[in-house]
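Input for the complex:
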Amino acid sequence: MHNFEFVKPSSIADAVAAMSTEGAQPLSGGQTLLPTMKQRLAAPEVLVSLTGIAELQGVCMGEGGLHIGAATPHAVVAREALAHYPALASLAGGIGDPAVRNRGTIGGSVANNDPAACYPAAVLASGATVVTDRRRIAAEDYFQGMFTTALEEGEFITQVIFPIPQAAAYVKFNQPASRFALTAVFVAKFADGVRVAVTGASNNGVFRWEEAEAALSADFAAGAIAGLTVPSDDMISDLHGSAAYRANLVKVLTGRAVTAAR
Amino acid sequence: MPKDTGIGASTKRREDVRFLTGRGVYTDDLTMFGQAHAVMVRSTVAHGRIVSIDTAAVEAMPGVLAVFTGEDFKDVGGNPAGWLINSRDGTPMREPKRPVLAHGKVRHVGDAYAAVIAESYAQAKDAAQVLSDATVIEELPAIIDMKAAAADASNRVHDEIPDNICFDWGWIEDNRAAVDEAMKSAPHVVTLELTNNRLVPNAMEPRASIGEYFPGTGDYKLTTTSQNPHLTRLLVCAFVMGIPENKLQVVAPDVGGGFGSKIYHYGEEALVLAAAKRLGRPVRWTAERTESFLSDAHGRDHVTKIELGCTKQGDILAIRTETYANVGAYLSNFSTATPTFLHGTLMAGPYKVPHVYVNVKTVFTNTAPVDAYRGAGRPEATYSIERVVDKMCRELNLDPFEVRRRNLLTPDQFPYTTPVGLVYDTGNYQATLDKAVELADVAGFEARRAESARRGKLRGMGLSTWIEACGIAPSHLVGVLGARVGLYDAATVRVNATGTISVMTGAHSHGQGHETVFPQIVAEKLGIDASSVEIVHGDTAKIPFGMGSYGSRSLAVAGSAMDRAIDKIIAKGKKIAAHMLEAAEGDITFADGKFSVAGTDKAKTFGEIAFSAYVPHNYPLETLEPGLEETAFYDPANFTYPAGAYICEVEVDEGTGKVDVVSFTCADDFGNVMNPMIVEGQVHGGVGQGIGQAVLESTSYDENGQLLTGSYMDYAMPRADDVPFYTVDHSCATPCTHNPLGVKGCGEAGAIGSPPAVVNAVIDALHRGGHTHVSHIDMPVSPNRVWQAMNA
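Predicted:
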């Protein structure tokens, strides 16, 4: 790890000011950034910690659904979202291990947009809104390919607002080593239709499986997708799973998520 | 009632108090006054010619004290292979020099070609990066695939070795024609091609070394993560550095796991000694986890074709194998023994198979060196045999339990000379098989399978009846086989004047529990409290000699040496007692901690005798030396042959291909058991590693020789929820016939016997689920592979 400056603002305004420093990099739970720095693959000059800002913490119901502060750790979401959005709480409770869940945050995960991360699937399937220090971004507009988002230079997430579906489930198949999602599917049934978001599978990052959404909107049952096939063209192929295997998982896990949805 | 002390008691591990409370002292915990820090500069390419290393680029950097390159060590020796193996044509193996730092060429990603020593770790790290950038390496094509390496003479890991083959070994060559004939005339031949996957050892504690040099005396001290400090001293002194053995002290303090990878001497150990001498300061080095992945000796990595000739009823008539064994870029110390005498000699398994022939071609590649890893050769043999026997059962529609019973050696056949050169001293393989069948409730399998099916899972059961040879090893035998060392061990038992005892043992505990078990034996034999016995290990200045801990040898060999030394203590004690009790020495008996005159109530306690030996006021000084300390060297008469039967049940998720190991039953014969709790723990650990190999662990290099599984993001270690609760039994014991404690090794058994049981269970599950076209899946049986196999 190289040397760096560290600042920990206590308000969004102070964080915005700190982020205007040359070479500033926001730090939330640090579950990706710190290992990367330790390996000397990243060397930010200034780390701006976002975990000391009260407005960025916590889970509560509000306008538009469930509001989760960007710096809220997964373990807190797992506990406090349970009564409002059990599928989301279950997702948060299945990320990493207890140490990761008590440090890693929803904002960090969504900002990093790892193609195998869990939260992007929930954000996209829920049609959530990503709120930043300067604007509100719809999920559809936010995710722009693996590790790529709509966030601008210096922009940071303050909150994610999740509409609450009638029923939902997240089914994750672990990559055996990292226990990130080898492939995982979030299914959310709303009054106006079903949304299916897939993470871990595509070279383009999290995506919606629209054929399944149409079929499930007509008939919310696992059997409704039986006749569908998932093209493997854009699927990730690596040590842990071929493109065809991941395409299979998308379908299998979608079916299981529909069955599990509540 | 179970005993609560002495031999056979499940005494809790006394060392765990310090380990579990963070008070262990590991190499990296030590801080030396005036220490400097070494960082190795490692190759980022698998194969290349070193054109230039611009050391001037870093010498003026802040804190930099010294830079070493291969040039600094070109005139010292190389790190040798411990066994000389001859090829089938009689020519000796090819032994390229393994230098302290790569010189001329780099041969694998992670091959260290330079080292930077600086005041701080961060400064050394910064300078190492700059030096890496200031090095020009002309990249050469990487040689990764073993068979391609052996076929292509134009591309060489070592310029002087034309076909990249270290040796082409046949065992036993004189039997080859008869085996070929038996195979040809067999009514049925089963053929299986399989890979025994390469594993990264992943000891919890990474390798670390501290070198010190004392200019006043010319003495060196090396503190290092070693399973056998005496062997390291021998290699550093006699082969690499040319230091007299009496001028180097090697200390291995608490060591956090080795699994084989810390048996060997590594270049970093020589480097810190040379640097300490040059700088006149202690020099330390600790591996980062990435370095461990890249540069610890890996395990396994065999590609084998095995053929089994049999009758239609499943009587095994002949076994023939052809194996390609990867040794990586250099010969690590045991690398030539592992695929040969620790593998080929086990290829008859526990069966009465008359004809066996083994061929092993050992190949250099641009990958990390491969050497012994928990089980070392015997897991590879067991996996090949138990998989092909399982395949035979499927091809001939025979019951795998019944086929084992037909072929297992029977108790009346011992001692039994195998067709591959070993003499099994004792065993009862039917007993362990029956016990495993009972404990695993094989009769209830169908009900469990139906219950799994109701949950949408395919359930299968796999069996493995395994044997291994451990407690290495009789020196006269291994000498004939090519070993360049003897494999005895030594112990000193020092009785202090107050009756407390220190045992200096050549075994080295790096997780095994010697500090608990060895005192149990001393206490039992001398009739004293185990708490008054301390074990001293891991320091060449304190211990008479030792060959360390590996090959499940600590108790069978070093424990036997300790037993012999205790016998000498008792014998001397009888002489002292005879004098004190005014009786003939022949009339003195020793039991329960008392020396007594037979047939009388006259007796002296062990403590009284010890005191007399050191305060010899009433003592036969004219015929007997004072003091009570004895040393024994013990050379085993044979290997020990633990054996057992393992039954595994798995559930396979047809949708995802995921394998869950849902039950695992072990019935083992380890001979006499000194501490059942520790034995069970060893089996648990071994089976955990075996399940890791079978289901999870994969070491993958790409075609350019980059390690794709170089971190825990991609290398899947088994975790608690990957393994079931085990059922472990060791009641079917046939004591070893040739060591004084009647013990066999238990440390590697689990890792040896379990992988084929897991894979056999997976194949069974797939067949029961209708996927009868699947005859084999290579390890690890990952979800991806199982799904691909089902859907092929």
